[in-house]
Structures are given as structure tokens and as C-alpha cells.
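Give me C-alpha cells for this 154-residue protein.
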Amino acid sequence: MQKLKTVLSKNQLFKGLDKRYLQLIVDCASDVHFNSGDIIFHEGEEANQFHIIREGRVALEVVLASGREPIIIQVIGEGDILGWSWLFPPYRRHFDARAVTNTKAIAIDGKYLRTKCEKDHHLGYELMKRFTILIEKRLRGMRLQNPDMYAIHA
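Here you go.
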């Protein structure tokens, strides 16, 4: 557990987080591994956890039309957070996530944290602020990585 605490406390998302809140997160964290090609989650699935990528790369994908191949909208890697839907109703995934390479990550039980946020609104507000910054950064990155997604074709 001390190893997880050290890794989490150094992650940009949790830097400076109150020690008791960091301990809550450590208490519901575990190491996980995904093989290259593994689907981590699908769009529309219930979102009850999120991951911190320790090693490897994960593609965020979306299927724009039935029967077509998914489009990679962003690839994330070491230090990045995978998943923010666990914190925002209706708690459903917005993209597919697939391991591009063998990937090591820390899985964090978002459902557990949601119940803690309901009881401690200071924790909830702190996580909302931090994840909102992550969402804004992810959307900006997606827009820069995929300018054609926003082009109007005649």
C-alpha cells in the first residue's frame, strides 16, 4: 500500500490533496495489467472505476457509424488518467478504451469514492475541481489531435 500511496501522491491529479483524502483513494486502489489489444471498457458501460496509467498506452476510441471501424480520438500514456465518467451522472462511459501496448495501471474504485463524496462534500468538491481540469485538457487535446472531426463537409 505504501508503494501505491507514493505513486498516487506524485500524480498531477492528486498532488497537494489532503492526506486523509489521499488515504481514501489509496484504500480503494489496486494494481492492474492489460495486454496489448485488451478492451478496458466500452462506450455506454456503467463507469465505476478509473485508472492511472503507470506504463504503456491506451487508445480512446469512438464508433461514428454502425459497422465501421472505431476512430482513435486520443492515445494516453504514463501518468495519464483513464476515465472520469465515474464522477459525473449518469456514470456511463463516453468512449471505448483499448490497450495499445501492454499496460500497467492503478485501478481506483470510483463507486466507493462517489459514496464518500456524498458524505463529505469537501472531498467531492476537491475531486470535481481536479477532474474538471482533466476533462478540459482531454477535450482540448482531442480537438487538436482530430481537427477533421469538426470540419463541415459539403
